[in-house]
Q: What sequence folds into this?
C-alpha cells in the first residue's frame, strides 16, 4: 500500500505540466476533465483493492460455486483502478493531438479495455511468479479457478490456502484452470 499511495501522489504532480500546455481553453478543459477522471478512478479503485472487500464474498462462493457476484465486484475494482485511468490518459493524448471527439472517445474505450486486460494478465503473471502480495489476495485467476471447481472441497482448498498463505496457491489455481481462463478473458477484451 505504501508504494501505491506514493504512486498515487504523483497524479497531483501532473497538474503542473497541464498548466504549461499552450492549447485552446476548450481543449485544456477537456484535458483537466480526463485527468481528474483518471485520478478519482485510480484512487477509488486502489482503495477498493486495498480493502480486500472481495474476501467477504468467499464463503458464499465456496458454498454454492457461483462466482458471478465476486467476478463483477473484482472487475469493477479493476476498471476503476486500471481501466478508467488508462482510458483517460489515452484521451488526454488524443485531445493534446487535436483529435476529433469521436476519435478521442474510441481511443479512450480501447485503452480502457486494454488497461483491464493488462490487469488480468498482470494477475496471472504475479500468481505464476509467486509474488507474495498476490498469493494472499482475491485476484481474477483465483475467481476463475473457484468458478471452475466442481466441488465444495476443491473450492475450500483454494480459499484455505489463500487465507493462510500456506500451500501453493499458484499450483491450485493453475490446476483448476484459473490462469488460462483469466488469460482468455483478457484476450477477449481486446480482440
A:
Amino acid at each position: 500500500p505504501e508504494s501505491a499511495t506514493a504512486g498515487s501522489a504523483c497524479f497531483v504532480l501532473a497538474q503542473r505540466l497541464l498548466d504549461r500546455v499552450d492549447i485552446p481553453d476548450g481543449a485544456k478543459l477537456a484535458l483537466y476533465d480526463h485527468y481528474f477522471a483518471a485520478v478519482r478512478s485510480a484512487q477509488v479503485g486502489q482503495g477498493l483493492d486495498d480493502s480486500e472487500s472481495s474476501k467477504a464474498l468467499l464463503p458464499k462462493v465456496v458454498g454454492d460455486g457461483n462466482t458471478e457476484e465476486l467476478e463483477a465486484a473484482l472487475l469493477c475494482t479493476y476498471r476503476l483502478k486500471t481501466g478508467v485511468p488508462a482510458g483517460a490518459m489515452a484521451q488526454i493524448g488524443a485531445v493534446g493531438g487535436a483529435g476529433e471527439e469521436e476519435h478521442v472517445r474510441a481511443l479512450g474505450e480501447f485503452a480502457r479495455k486494454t488497461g483491464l486486460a493488462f490487469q488480468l494478465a498482470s494477475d496471472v503473471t504475479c500468481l505464476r511468479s509467486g509474488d507474495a502480495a498476490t498469493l494472499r489476495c482475491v485476484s481474477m485467476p483465483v475467481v476463475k479457478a473457484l468458478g471452475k471447481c466442481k466441488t465444495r472441497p476443491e473450492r475450500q482448498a483454494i480459499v484455505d490456502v489463500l487465507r493462510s498463505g500456506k500451500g501453493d496457491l499458484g499450483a491450485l489455481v493453475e490446476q483448476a484452470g484459473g490462469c488460462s481462463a483469466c488469460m482468455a478473458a483478457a484476450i477477449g477484451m481486446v480482440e
About this structure: The radius of gyration is 19 Å.
